[in-house]
Amino acid sequence: MGAISGKEYKRRLGKLKSNVWVDGKKLEGNICAHPYFRGVIQSQSELYDLQVDPEFDGAMTFRSPTTGSDVGLSYLIPQTKEDLEKRRKMIQCWARHTGGLMGRSPDYMNTVLASFAASVDQLEGEPNAFPERLLRFYEFARENDLSFTHTFVNPQNNRSTLAFLEEDDKNARIVKKTKEGLVIRGAKLLATQGGITDEILVFSAPGVKEKEHAYGFSIPTDTKGVHFVARQSFVQDDSSFNSPLSSRFEEMDSVVIFKDVVVPWDRVFFFENIRAATNLYIKGKFVPFALHQITSRQVIKSELFLEVAQKIIDELNIEEYQHVQSKLVEIVKGLETMKALLAYSEQKAEADEHGIMVPSRQPLLVSINQFQDLYPRFAEIVQLLGASGLMTIPTEAAFGSSLGDDLKHYLQSCNRNGKEKVALFRLAWDLTMSSFGSRQTLYERFFFGDPIRLSQMIYQTYEESSISLVEKLLNEKS
Ligand SMILES: Cc1cc2nc3c(=O)[nH]c(=O)nc-3n(C[C@H](O)[C@H](O)[C@H](O)COP(=O)(O)OP(=O)(O)OC[C@H]3O[C@@H](n4cnc5c(N)ncnc54)[C@H](O)[C@@H]3O)c2cc1C
User: Fold this and answer.
1) 361 Cβ below 6 A of ligand 1
2) Rounded average pLDDT over 191-203
3) pLDDT value at residue 237
4) What is the DSSP string of 292-343?
5) Whose CA, among 64, 375, 413, 467, lies 20 to 30 Å from 394?
6) What is the whole-number distance in angstroms between the Cα of residue 218 and the centre of ligand 1?
7) What is the pTM of this model?
8) pLDDT of the residue at 466
9) Which is the closest atom of ligand 1 to the Cα of 451?
10) Domains present along the chain, CATH in parentheses
11) How far is the CA of 180 from the centre of ligand 1 (A)?
């Protein structure tokens, strides 16, 4: 089959009979038509369309080594630095279509799956581990361009370091092993895009301590017993004027409940093996591969912020003020630093013993940890520049009313009539202040892990040090 179009993505979704719960009711009918989901499904389908658009011939796909079909480039396991560059360009092409606002565009999870497939050596020779199944599944997903959601983290019931001493009847765990497969019972914290993908990839989170929590598998979204409980939607309404971003990119987050879900053995990649679970993250290629995708997207998102901030400055004619310039320069510094760290990670990439080209993880870890602080500041800068402009934002209907012409006149800015100015400021509001915008901030702060623990990881894994220089200076005799 190879790389799919948006039509095929929607066709497959329409056929799924997943248990998606919305406002206390099980969603019936085609999820593609539901007001909570239709906007993001449409945007995702546009991404798939770009894959097969002749204009991007060769830039969004690569030739499958097994079937010769053109398959999605985000599934590529890079072998050269040129492969890394091709991956970055493809990821950024998709990110430009969404302004980087869809953290879970399919390239994210395709990259995660490719990173696990590139790390199967961590499962070789381990008990209860099946590297060949993981590789076979990766190939199946790549050839059929499957879409994925995932869930790793346990619900926030107890985060104490001693929590594992409590009896656990909440977190998703292995409760039985049968002839058919693993039986999973309990909940997982979140699955962004839960219910709008073909598959759900379920792994234990790094640092797992009990063997019944150490597993990795993937199952179709509509597997019996899997329930996605959606939060309230952050789509304000369908109007692209009123809700320019949420109407298109609200990805939805769902709690996932597993009610004695049977995971067939051919979909179990490992189970009851804490070392395999840990090594796949720590020693495998998940962190560098995922961070390369993430940073590529975050660069584009930062460019969006830069443009929005500059447009506000132009419309309000506030460029002459020094603090305004330095606020814009804060965004520029963040953006340029991230671009440099991304390029540096590619420049310092090294092939491993299997010929897989791995981007350098240190610059990417620095970049994401820095972005966790930068992003809320970017949002704050837009608010500080936009001021009341972010509140004088009547809806589209107001411009169609008998006061429409007054509004067009009185709300005009330097280069735009009132309706055009409000459209720009509604976008800035949706980016930084609406429930959709606030979620974007929480997302960039947490989706790849707690910033505190990420910075700890940087400390613990940082390799370059000037200790030898200090010793030299201390020991040199004048
Ligand atoms: C919008 C959004 C979308 C997400 N999507 C997904 C998804 O699709 N799939 C998925 O699996 N996950 C998803 N996540 C979850 C994400 O991985 C977690 O938010 C992240 O790992 C942090 O965990 P937590 O939210 O449970 O916070 P917690 O770990 O509960 O942290 C809460 C607070 O306690 C502190 N704390 C807790 N433990 C420690 C410790 N050991 N040391 C120091 N401080 C500690 C933290 O610093 C923080 O201040 C998403 C999160 C968000 C916000």
Assistant:
1) no
2) 98
3) 87
4) HHHHHHHHHHHHHHHHHHHHHHHHHT-TTSHHHHHHHHHHHHHHHHHHHHHH
5) 375
6) 22
7) 0.97
8) 60
9) 47
10) 6-281 (2.40.110.10), 285-469 (1.20.140.10)
11) 33
